[in-house]
Design brief:
421 residues, mainly alpha, three-stranded antiparallel sheet, 3 strands, cell cycle, transmembrane
Length: 421
């Protein structure tokens, strides 16, 4: 039985209207919503950003493989003589398990809760930064007191401080939105908070973590709408502070000189030892590398190969292709996180959007610094490669931060489906 012209016309109009509405949603939110009118199947928007999760899983998996490769020869050294060949692999796997459980719990926490407790989390991070400086609490390694032994892992308060500053700065900007154009009411209190964190970190010392935290705070202030002149003034003050710290610290000056000329005999076996052997590792890797497990520099030539200089081992074993893949993965990850943040702000969820973008600055900025150090573009700093380098507290807080980003994305999608976050 054929349909009447009126019925056929009504169905075509309804179909066009539904197609336009679903297409508009797809263009506006970039959610993978299927046009069920054309396919005949009802579509359901995905509940979370699957590509983001898979890129994170890929980085974690590659990091685990490369940590094992970079650390397998360490028991040959007297310092690690009592360790098994797979010691660091098993520890890293344990850290990943803890991080996975923590991430599952974190993704269940609404962003309203994070906003409510952001100042208290910042206070907790300050207390831990003070505690780590106490001789009977903090653990000193290679002259730096940065860790609190917790049995299962040595916790690094500076990693918690990175997450805390992202949450606190975002909450601060939301509260100061009406006075964000006034320096003393909007910027000065945040500058004092960052300065306190900086003094505690420099007492450890951990200048690398301070650089990352300062970058996160400045980035959130800028994205939150602080006056451009104020932003550049803060930038000038921070650069001046770093210059003064380098000028009045002999060993920091030596690091800068070693960075500028790593092949000088004065520095090649001293301050530039790590950098020179990192560059040798990249040179040996060429285009496609020497093959997985075939690194020579990890055989006690390159110190901290499984932590700060993991990218150099990747370069030697997987070559330019492997390094380029890692760089692209971090670029894509940072861009995706920023997109989620912009989407949240467009939905009038400013706190969630700034938090996501602050975490994007953290991941992208720290990865950039670590890669720059490994490649000789930046002076040597004690910063790990996020998601990949060996380190329990770093892996744990990286995964927790990304779980928060995933929560922001899930709430965005819920709002765009017409529900409540």
């Amino acid at each position: 039985m054929s349909a009447t012209p009126q019925a056929r016309f009504g169905w075509q109009a309804l179909r066009a209207r539904l197609s336009a509405g679903i297409g508009g949603l797809r263009r506006g939110s970039e959610l993978p919503v299927r046009d069920w009118v054309s396919t005949g199947q009802p579509g359901r928007p995905q509940g979370f950003d699957q590509p983001l999760v898979w890129v994170v899983v890929a980085l974690l998996a590659l990091g685990m493989v490369m940590v094992y490769s970079a650390s397998i020869a360490l028991p040959d050294s007297p310092r690690f003589a009592n360790y098994a060949n797979g010691h660091f692999l098993m520890r890293h796997a344990l850290f990943l398990g803890i991080a996975f459980v923590a991430s599952l719990v974190t993704v269940q926490v609404p962003m309203q809760v994070w906003e409510k407790y952001a100042p208290w989390l910042f206070v907790l991070s300050l207390l831990l930064l003070v505690a780590v400086l106490m001789p009977f609490i903090g653990k000193s390694v290679n002259g730096a007191r940065r860790w609190i032994p917790l049995g299962v892992m040595a916790f690094q308060p500076s990693e918690l401080a990175k997450l805390a500053i992202a949450l606190y700065a975002s909450d601060y900007m939301v509260r100061k939105m009406e006075v964000k154009q006034r320096f003393f009411r909007a910027v000065m209190p945040m500058a004092v908070a960052v300065a306190v964190v900086g003094l505690l970190l420099l007492a450890e010392p951990d200048m690398g973590a301070f650089m990352v935290i300062a970058t996160i705070a400045m980035g959130i202030l800028f994205l939150g709408g602080v006056n451009g002149r104020m932003f550049f003034l803060i930038t000038a003050v921070l650069i001046g502070a770093f210059v003064l710290m380098i000028s009045f610290s002999e060993w920091r000056r030596e690091r800068i000189f070693a960075y500028l000329n790593p092949w000088d005999e004065k520095y090649a076996l001293g301050k530039a030892y790590q950098l020179s052997h990192s560059l040798i590792a990249f040179g040996r890797g060429e285009v496609f590398g020497q093959g997985l497990g075939s690194s020579v520099e990890k055989l006690h030539y390159l110190p901290e190969a499984h932590t700060d200089f993991l990218l150099a081992v990747i370069g030697e074993e997987l070559g330019f292709a492997g390094v380029a893949a890692v760089i692209f993965a971090f670029f894509w990850l940072s861009r995706r996180i920023f997109h989620i943040g912009r989407q949240a702000i467009a939905l009038d969820r400013v706190f969630s959007g700034l938090v996501a973008q602050g975490i994007g600055i953290w991941m992208g900025g720290q990865a950039f610094i670590n890669m720059g150090v490994n490649l000789g573009v930046l002076p040597t700093k004690g910063l790990t490669l996020p998601l990949m380098s060996y380190g329990g507290s770093a892996i744990l807080l990286n995964c927790v931060a990304l779980a928060i980003v995933l929560r922001v994305d899930m709430e965005n999608r819920q709002l765009m489906r017409g529900g409540r976050a």
